[in-house]
Fold this protein.
Amino acid sequence: MKKELLRISPGFEDVMPSEYKDLIENGPYFKGYGVNDLGTFKEILEEHPLCAGCGLALALRLTMASLPNPEDTIVVGSTGCSALGFPQTALQNIHSLFGNQNAVATALKRALTLRFPDKVKDVVVIAGDGATADIGLDITMHSWFRREKITTTMLDNEAYANTGGQESGMSSKGAVLNMAPTGKKFSKIPVPELAQISGCDYVAVVSPYAPKKLERAVRRAILVAREVGPTYVQIFTPCPTNYKFKPLEALDMVKVKEVDGSYVSKEYFSPEAEELIKRLEGKKIKRSRNYGRKIFHQDVRIRRTRSSNSCTLNRYGSVHRWQANCR
């Protein structure tokens, strides 16, 4: 894409707020930025409408900073909290109907491949757990079955957070929510495992607690999708509004779930994807514990104490009763 195309429509320059002008003048395009550069460029408006402490907002910022080629990337989103943030981002994006995002991304990727056969055009789906694992699970999985060369990214806040905090298929068993007052009755949908057996060549589960791991996963997923096949990244984005914890404690919640094993970071490579990443990164992929070709990473810096109805972070001295039974 030519940089001249990234401009405010003629006639609107004088009426657009200065924050939007910053998205054009100081955005991430053509600069090769990464997570370490956050704060030196404009990736989202400071006064975006997402809640204070929103894990999804932080994950969205980190994801945008991780794109290997943002000027030639189109993001396809869907209904949910993330849809409130996209209009305030320095990203080319399309809003699809609820759950239809992978179908739209499929058509877009095919059209771009025909129109620009000699150029790299990345299509990245970024949607919530409701759009990906509930309402859009069939469309999502069929894009994997067809081996569409797109990256699917789930921002998993484990609830329908935009509509009052109803439980979703990605809510953990026992989670207490507004529409699940006695705790969710069934387990979390194993979407990473479904992605693997459905043909995804790269699968990763990460969180904002480890920004560099998140950046590496997003970049790897997009690079593999370019040349090999479909990829999937799942990002844990805890919701303080509906899980009733303080905004400053969002990353604490990530640590709790890493410790109790209910949300552990992991990666999976197909043989073709592994070979590609080895070639691109010029080094052997580190494996800490193998399960087939899965890689599990645990980075726990706190101790966990157990009780019947609470999870305690000793490091910060704060107690969270956000699950009926944290086990």
About this structure: The mean pLDDT is 81.
